Amino acid sequence: MKEKQLLDLGVDPEDIEFAKELVENARAKGLNKKKVNRQLQLAVQKPEANFTNPYFGKLAQKVYQDRRFKERKEPAPWKIWGEDLPEQAVLQMKNACRLPISWRGALMADAHQGYGLPIGGVLATENAVIPYAVGVDIACRVKMTVFDSPAEDVDKNKDFLVDTLQKDTLFGIGKTFSKPHDHEVLQEDWSFSKVTKHIKPRAIKQLGSSGSGNHFVEFGELTVSQDTLGLQAGTYLAVLSHSGSRGAGSAVANHYSQLAMKLRPGLPKELQHLAWLTLDSEEGQEYWQAMELMGRYAAANHEIIHEKIIKSLGATPLLQIENHHNFAWKEVHDGRELIVHRKGATPAGKDDLGIIPGSMVNSCYVVRGKGDETSLSSAPHGAGRVMSRRKAKQLFNWTDVNQMIKSKNVTLLSAGLDEAPSVYKDIDMVMEYSNDLVEILACFQPRIVKMAEDGERPED
Fold first, then answer.
1. Residues in binding site
2. From the annotation, which residues make up the binding site for GMP?
3. Which of 329, 318, 341, 269 has the alpha carbon at shortest distance from 76?
4. 315 with 419, same domain?
5. Which terminus of the chain is more solvent-facing, meaning fewer CB atoms within 10 Å of its CB: N or C?
6. pTM score
7. How confident is the model at residue 61 (pLDDT cuts 50, 70, 90)?
8. Three-class DSSP category at 349
9. 3-state SS, residue 2
10. Where are the alpha helices (DSSP H) in 82-169?
């Protein structure tokens, strides 16, 4: 029996060779193909009821033992930054540290509830990757371009900058370009898995676009208080973007998350979204390859957005910085190679440059990582929500929100009410909690902001 047939019958990848042997033995003893398939399928699907099966009982026993959840004797150690973090986020982090694959964790000051691992959660595992601990918007990232133009241009050329954002950006789920952009990422192999092969045509049409939810492109003023980053102290015009791998990343995340949960049916309900794929399995290797491709695709989206804006402005970029979250990295900590998941958290290794945004009216910070090992060299990815989208829509109205935005000297072109500034934590407080993780080098103040239209389903 071929490997694909065994997989279709529900055999775990690590049990393929063992199952082949049992199938051969069963056929040699006269069991016909139809009965082999049926009994094998029962042994895999209901192992606890098939321990005494004369042909596949040993497989049933192995499957049952392998799929039983074996919790760590003691939770993996982890540390919290910040105070009064949401109870559900803290509980999710505690649960993640119960996994047998977990090594160490951290919870950032911008934490709030997510699927499986909380937003702001950092988890190091051994030889395993958790699709939902990476996140649905794989490799969501921020990128900043600083121009050789004074910040006063935000006011002097406001209409032109507004037109540039309207012309050079595209937001929203399902939105595609009628004339697709080209990029070297599209020349890569997308056929290594069914899901990436299937999603490529859509990815081509969405390349260079932004998502919805908290994704944005905005012009603003970057203030550098002392000579650093290769810039002289002063205030500059800059553009900042935030979005990820769009529909392609979502498809990859959903496919492999469902596959991981199918392969770990013995997990308790509260841990089901933390189902993992081992890196020495075909599925684990395939997901890792897909995740890294989505990382390059997300980077390409930002590259195209910034190239179009640079061309429209006719300005010279002095500096470009970018970093991503919702990803997993192979890193060495505690003297061993680990898989470090950062879901809504960013790398902050020694001297790593990064960007930590606030909200559409509040400061964003350019930072340098300090390489703090207790955080697994991580930092927050933003301000973090303090309420759900549903609650935000119940509490706020556009009349009050627009008045507040205008008082901050910000021009908002479009956004959802559930992205109102008050749904976010105080970014300065988040940064204060994180002063042992990063050093602040510069401050960006949004002035012209574009997000997806109100009513779009969130994609962040």
1. 137, 214-218, 242, 325-326, 357-360, 381-384
2. 214-218, 325-326, 357-360, 381-384
3. 341
4. yes
5. N
6. 0.88
7. confident
8. coil
9. coil
10. 87-96, 131-134, 153-156, 158-168
**Same domain as 303, residue 203:** yes
Question: Residue 460: its pLDDT value, please?
Answer: 62
Single residue among 51, 67, 83 that ends a domain in this structure = 67
Judge whether 82 lies within some domain: no
Closest CA to 210 of 133, 144, 300: 300
Q: Give the model confidence (pLDDT) of 356-387 as tens digits.
A: 999 999 999 999 999 999 999 999 999 999 99
- Residues tagged active-site: 381
Phi, psi dihedral angles at 60 (to 5 degrees): -60, -45
Check whether residue 150 and residue 32 sit in a common domain.
Answer: no
**Domain with 167 in it: what CATH number?**
3.90.1860.10
User: Could you give the CA distance from residue 289 to residue 255 in angstroms, rounded to a whole number?
Assistant: 14
* Binding residue numbers for Mn(2+): 137, 215, 242, 325
Across 32-46, 375-389, 417-431, least confident range: 32-46
59 with 172, same domain: the answer is no
Q: Is residue 256 part of a domain?
A: no
> Of all helices (H) and strands (E), which one includes residue 309?
helix 282-313
Domain with 438, as residue range(s), is 141-245+297-319+347-451
Residue 131 resides in a domain: no
Tell me how many domains the chain contains: 2
Q: Which residues pair with 124 in a beta bridge?
A: 104, 340
